[in-house]
Amino acid sequence: MNTKPFNSGLIFNKPKYSDWIFGGYTPLDKKVFNESGNWTDFLPEVEYQNNAGYDRMACVSYSLLNCLETLYYFQTQTRPNFSDRFTAKLSGTTINGNTLENVFNAVREYGLVDESLWPDVFQKFNNQDEFFKEYYKDIPQEIINEGKEFLEHWTPYREWVGTLNKDLICEALKDTPLQVVVAYDKGTHYLKPTSPYNHAVMLLNAEHGKYWEIFDHYTQTIKKYHWDYEFGAILKPTLIHKQNIMFMPQDNYLYLLVQGKEQILAMGIDGKLMIYDQKIDTLINSTSRAKKYQIPQPLTLEQWNRVDKINGKEELIEAKK
To answer: Given the DSSP bridges, would you call strands 190-191 and 220-226 parallel, antiparallel or unpaired?
Structure first.
């Protein structure tokens, strides 16, 4: 009996010679964010691309956003949930899927929005085609504009990582979680499939000489690929926060300062920052403000210290300069 080959939406293209290469041609400075190279403690919310019986054919969008959500959480201590549907649509994903390059370019051009602004689709349809039409319908311009607000504060960059040098892959993993191309497989053993590359996932950890640990979004999240398995391609995404020295808080926006284990949440009021003593998750979940303000904008200490604060905590924060 003939069966259709598995494909979760990957159109496999190798990097161009002109692309930035980690450990080779790249203008980005090497920065070790996570010395352990293990991103387990910062994993995003689990979301399946084949939920409710319909396949979004968007493994490239899901895996890239898993990387960016993990990296954002690590840098800000705030766990986001960006809309996979938003990125999948604006990157031109079709029933055949998409390339790593197209999806990353869409993030660079359109930014990201919260899942609540352009959520997944869970209602029942007669068939996959009807679902696909609804999932990939045009996005209202006002929501597209929200994505570009993200780019006012963050700049995404990408580098490619060679697939043969395992030590170099481990070094890159200390900077960011990596988007990797694999042949889909499942199970609790060390996976080493021999089928063609047909899936994109997030690489979150490596046990040197034993296995690569994967965060998937298709029926099973945590998987281990054999140490000898060769990825089809490896994309290293980076999020760099723009250091806006002339920072002015906007009214009713939430802002977050992270200093070590301390997190301080504030809201923009008349050009000042009103500091809250409530726990961050409690405040965000209970607020009745518009959904676009649910993810606080992270601030540098320099930005924080340039703005007047409203309450006595200001002196404690500025003393840490």
So the answer is: parallel
pTM, rounded to two decimals: 0.77
> What CATH homologous superfamily does 40-240 map to?
Cysteine proteinases (3.90.70.10)
Q: Which parts of the chain sit beneath pLDDT 50?
A: 1-2, 244-245, 286-293, 312-321
Tens of pLDDT, residue by residue over 193-251, are: 999 999 999 999 999 999 999 999 998 899 999 999 999 999 999 998 876 445 778 88
What does the DSSP 8-state code read for residue 83?
-
What distance in Å separates the CA atoms of residue 119 and residue 43, rounded to the nearest whole number? 20
| Predicted pLDDT of residue 261 | 64
Q: How far is CA 176 from the centre of its chain?
A: 10
Q: Which two tokens stand for residue 223?
A: 């998987």
The region, left, alpha or beta by phi > 0 then psi within -120 to 50, assigned to residue 190 is beta
Q: Using one digit for the tens of pLDDT, what is the confidence trace for 12-41?
A: 988 887 788 998 877 777 777 899 999 999
**Sequence-distant (≥ 6) Cβ neighbours of residue 43 within 8 angstroms:** 66, 70, 204, 215
Q: What's at 146, amino acid-wise?
A: E
Determine the Cα–Cα distance for residues 321 and 318; give it in Å rounded to an integer.
Answer: 6
**Domain boundary assignment for the chain:** 40-240, 243-318
- For residues 321 and 27, give the distance between their C-alpha atoms in angstroms, rounded to a whole number: 30
The pair of three-digit structure tokens given for residue 109, joined into one six-digit string: 């051009």
3-state secondary structure 212-249: EEEEEEECEEEEEEECCCCCCCEEEEEEEECCCCCCCC
Regarding the domain delimited by 243-318, which CATH topology (the fold level of the hierarchy) does it fall under? OB fold (Dihydrolipoamide Acetyltransferase, E2P) (2.40.50)
